[in-house]
Write a structure and sequence with these properties.
Number of domains: 2
Number of helices: 8
CATH architecture of the largest domain: 3-Layer(aba) Sandwich
Strand order of the largest sheet: 6-7-8-3-9
Number of strands: 9
Radius of gyration: 18 Å
Strand content: 15-25%
CATH class of the largest domain: Alpha Beta
Structural class: alpha/beta
Order of helices and strands: EEEHEEHEHHHEHEHEH
Helix content: 25-40%
Distance between the termini: 21 Å
Bound molecules: adenosine-5'-triphosphate
CATH topology of the largest domain: Rossmann fold
Length: 232
């Protein structure tokens, strides 16, 4: 479902004399349906950068990213938007929402974008908010004033409300207590069981060991390591 081949990335610092920083070269990975792969590597090795390229936020310098058969690198924006709507779910660490939109609508929005009827979208959103222990009295309020852990759970509910075939998870258990962490791990197991291909960054080592089938060390994709034609 996710196929990354010979991917490279450079950042150009336009406000610092156009300095070009190579951060990744020769990155290869794949994630099959029903599999959860964890990205590991020291801080600054490029885990988030790789995830953002796969989500289509960062443009690679070279190489290929195919998701469910679609070539992401260089795809037209409307193709990327369509892929994110149908196929590619993403749970980032931070919730970004429009002010004044009630929490239940924030969670139901991915279903509404797919044309799911309002009543069904709302019911599915409420079910996830209930599973993730967001108090019912908060469902009609905007999540902008919620605690960090509550916002993260709203983000997770939004990412799991539609059975996306591909899921990118950036630290999904980072600010959660033990009980909610178990709920998130259960959601990940359920997604794997229905055949989702999942790529995640988990600093929570125990969570990583429990849900990941394989680990990919991004440190192997740093340009210094791949210089001279060494395989990554
Ligand atoms: N927008 C950007 N502009 C310039 N450099 C960037 C940008 N984003 C990331 N980098 C650089 O790319 C490298 C990889 O960063 P990245 O955030 O992907 O690492 P990471 O492995 O996710 O780190 P951590 O585990 O600390 O979150 C770092 O050296 C970082 O400074």
């Amino acid at each position: 479902m996710i196929h990354v081949e010979n991917l490279s990335k450079t950042f150009t610092l336009h406000n610092q004399g156009g300095t070009v920083i190579p951060v990744m070269a020769g990155a290869n990975l794949h994630v099959d349906p029903g599999e959860c792969v964890g990205l590991v590597g020291r801080s600054g090795s490029g885990k988030s950068t790789l995830m953002r390229m796969i989500h289509g936020n960062y443009l690679p310098a070279g190489g290929s990213i195919r998701i469910a058969g679609v070539q992401m690198a260089g795809a037209e924006p409307r193709r990327i938007i369509a892929l994110r709507r149908d196929t590619l779910g993403y749970v980032s660490q931070f919730l970004r929402v429009l002010p004044r939109v009630p929490t239940v609508e924030v969670v139901a929005e991915p279903l509404r974008a797919l044309g799911v009827a309002q009543s069904e979208a709302q019911a599915r959103a409420e079910c996830l908010l209930w599973r993730l222990n967001i108090p019912r009295r908060l469902w009609s309020l905007s999540p902008t004033t919620f605690s960090g852990g509550e916002q993260q759970r709203v983000n997770i509910a939004r990412g799991f409300v539609h059975p996306f075939p591909v899921l990118l998870l950036d630290e999904p258990t980072a600010s959660l207590d033990a009980q909610n962490r178990e709920v998130v791990l259960a959601l990940i197991f359920e997604a794997k069981a229905r055949g989702a291909a999942i790529l995640g960054i988990f600093h929570d080592e125990e969570a990583r060991a429990r849900v990941c089938d394989r680990l990919v060390d991004v440190t192997g994709f740093t340009p210094a390591k791949t210089a001279g034609g060494q395989a990554a």
